[in-house]
Each structure stands twice: as C-alpha cells, then as structure tokens.
Amino acid sequence: MVSVLRVIALHTCSKPPIVYLPWIQWIFPGMPEVFFVSGAVMAATLRRRPALAVLRGRFRRLLPPFYVYAVVALGVMIVTDLRSSSPLASLHRGDILSFLFPVVRPTGSVTRVVLWGHLWFLNAFVWVIALAPLTYWLHRRVKGSPLLLFGLAFGACVMLDKLGHRAVRSEFYDVTLFGWFFQLGYLYDDGVLQRIRPRVHLAIGAVLGVAGWAVAEHIEPVWRKGLNELYASQSGHLLIGAAWMFGAFAFREPIQQWLAHRRGRALDLVTRRTYTLFIWGPAANALAFAAVRHFGLNRVLYFAVTAASLVGLLMSFGWVEDVAARRRPELLPGVVLRFRRLRPQEI
C-alpha cells in the first residue's frame, strides 16, 4: 500500500512549475517494493500450482486491463495527432504493435508521452513473470542463484554503459534492476530474510543507503537542469530501493501487527485497485495539469482535479481488474456492480 501511494505522490508532485517535490523520489521508491511483493507471491504460487497454470493466471490478470487502457490511450493519441500541426505528432505502426503484447516498452506519439511513458513497468513485469518458472526452478536448486544472476546482469548493463561500447536499451535495465527485487521475494517466501535479526537489517539498509547516495551524487550525478532525478542513476535507484527494503524488514513484525488490527476500507481500495492506479494514475495528473494550464497555476485546483479524476477513472475502469481476476465486478471495493437480467418482454 505504501509503495502504491508513494508512486501516486511521485507522479502528482512532479509537475513543475505547479508542484515539484524531488525528495519524494528518495523516500521508499515504490517499484522495487512492488516487484519484491510480486516475487514473494509468485514463489508461493509456483510452490502450490503447475507453472503453466500460474503463467496463464498471471497474464490473464495483467493483460485485459492493459488492453482496455491501450484502446483509450491509442484513441486519444490518434485523435490529437490528427488535430495537431506538429511534425512530431505521428503515431507509427510500431507504436501500435508495442501495445499488442508489451515484450518491449510500449511507445506512442511524442505529443502524448504522459499516456505511455509510465508503461515501462509493464514490460518489466511481462519478462520477470515469463521467466519466473525458470528462475524459481534455479532458486529451488541453488537458493539465491537467480538473485545473483540478475545482479550480475545488472552490473553488466552498467559496465557496458560506462565503458561506452554500446548503449544499453532501457528494457534491459528495467528487467535486471527490478527483476533483482523480484528474486529477493523468493528469499522472503523461503523465510531466509525473516531469520535475519532486525538490527542486521537496519545495518544493511544504512550501508546501502549511504552507498546509493554516494553513487547518485558523485558517480552517476542525478542533477539535470536543476532537477534532482534519482531515476537518472540506475545504480542509485537499486541501492536506495534496497536500503528502504531492508529498513522495512527490521520493522516487519510491528508493521504486520498494525495491519492486522487496522485493515480497513481504504487499504482494501488501494490493494484491490493497485494495477488500475498504476495504469491510469498519470492520466488523472494529465487532466489536472490541463485544467491548471487553462484556468491558471493553482495548486489547490490541481490537487482537487487530480483527486476527482482519479476517483472517476477508478470507478470507470477499476471493475476491469475485478473481471480479469475473476472477482465480482465492483464500482469501488465494497460497491458491487449488479447487472439486472432483462425479462423477455423488456428486450
């Protein structure tokens, strides 16, 4: 839940000149935690069910909500490109193909980057999920071996970039970086991480945090045109994300106890609409940004329109996530959509 809210806050508060809070990037990076949780869940599922059934179920939940989003996003891009006089406003065939099955990062019109720029995470998910049966098989034979392999692959990407032999595609960085956290979830499912003492977790987190700060400030500087962008440093992103992860491990038991007594409707809303929030969240920010550009720079208006747009998008498209998961479709968690069967005389 924390990682989801943090991603929403990052997208909302990264809109200069309305609001720009760069320090949010350094607080509990969201995607490493999302991939970690997904890896732990995947390991638990693969332990109980056949690999093919697991893959079929995961892709069934992953792709239909994305395709609904793709139809809307591509439709908006086509319409706006036809109305635009910019030579850059051209949606290519390759862009449309990248939305059919995101084995590469989905792309689109450069005039509407907000509609596809955040979809890199889906490409990384597709690959780590597709590789999960193999990596879990390796993990069962040599515990932690996939974690090491992904770490080495990430290091190879960094070295190729630094040595200047060739530019490394962003997809390789995404899969190796976040795939590493996915493999870390395997160790959590096995109980390995839980056996480490809290103070050791804190010490590891502190060391990783200092290392991440040093890398992001001195080795791979994250300052770009006065903006502090942690994600400009792939190594810094991994280290800072791991630092917060191990820090959270130190307080695992108090957090679990608190959640056991405080689980409520707000938490259910976030957890059962996580995917919808990730996909549609930037669209809500874009609608709010357009409103502010029209009516004037006003933070109150921006946050109000963002919140209203987010709720509207959740109510409009969140139920698709329920259908994909084979749950009863709900307008919002707790509000069931009831489709009345028509009588013959009403048809």
Describe the structure.
With 347 residues, the protein is mostly helical. It has one domain (2-346). Helix content is 69%, strand content 4%. A hairpin with a 3-residue loop joins strand 1 and strand 2 (19-20). Helix 2 crosses helix 7 (170-190), helix 2 packs across helix 9 (234-250) and helix 12 runs antiparallel to helix 13. 32% of the residues are buried. Mean pLDDT is 87; it is low at 339-347.
Task: Chart the SSEs and their pairings.
Elements lengths: L1 H11 L1 E2 L3 E2 L9 H19 L2 H33 L9 H8 L19 H22 L3 H19 L6 H21 L7 H22 L3 E2 L2 E2 L5 H17 L1 H11 L2 H8 L1 H22 L3 H26 L5 E3 L2 E2 L11
Antiparallel strand pairs: 1-2, 3-4, 5-6
Distance between the termini: 44 Å
**Biggest sheet record:** 2 strands, antiparallel
Mean pLDDT: 87
* Poorly predicted residue ranges: 339-347
Shape: globular
Domain count, please report it: 1
Please report which band the strand proportion falls in: under 5%, 5-15%, 15-25%, 25-35%, 35-45% or over 45%: under 5%
Give the % helix: 55-70%
By helix and strand content, what is the structural category? mainly alpha
Number of helices: 13
Radius of gyration: 21 Å
Order of neighbouring strands in the sheet with most strands: 1-2
Number of extended strands: 6
The SSE string, one letter per element, is HEEHHHHHHHEEHHHHHEE
